[in-house]
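Support request, please re-run this one:
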Amino acid sequence: MSITLQSGPVPRPDQARSSLVARSLVLGYGVLAYLVFFGTFLYAIGFVSQLIVPKTIDSGAVGSPLHALIVNLALMSLFAVQHSGMARQGFKRLFVSFASPALERSTYVLLASLSLILLFWQWQPITTVVWQIETPALAYAALAGHFLGWLIVLYSTFLISHFELFGLTQVVTHFAGRLTEPMKFKTPGLYSLIRHPIYLGFIIAFWSTPSMTLGHLLFAAVTTAYIFVGIWLEERDLVALFGDQYRHYRQKVAMLLPGLF
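Re-run finished. Output below.
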């Protein structure tokens, strides 16, 4: 009986060190991208709810509504192009042709976070009030609904592997020298009731507010429209990836509201 201890050439010590350094850099990049994302996510909650953070959706110097409209639409368009463009399979294939596949998701997350930071920084308020809930109980209920929406978003990411969704799993497995497992089709928790609970959470968070200004309304309306475009693009990719398995799921499970659509 013979035992093969290794196959292929033995790496030199300098090669091993180089590989370790390269994998460490990939890991550090992924961790940095995740931390930027998480800070941006927390800031987004304060930005929309107008709590704690220094710059919110209705704060800042008020100027011309037309100028504010143009600037805000440009900021949201920039985010939409980056967010949807980099999520497409064609871009992913292009990216991995010149960089490590382990970096693809982290790069997507980092650039999406940076485009949101730019939006928060340059957002122009339009403070004309559309509605204002005066009854304290109803105002608190609206604010509770807002935070419930954010909770649904965060909870739903953990249902489908939060750390893989935001790139940490990929860089950790790369650092450990393992291959990332192929994406599996699964429908845990809320995903057995609706196909897109993350998007539902965002819609609830953006629209549930005791005080709605024109600027906030613009933000909620445009992001909601973008969500429906994103659903169409995402489901097209999922059908291409999972075929009949996803088609059957789409036929049985509502998109956003059980029993309705």
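Residues 1-16 have pLDDT under 50 and may be disordered. The radius of gyration is 22 Å.
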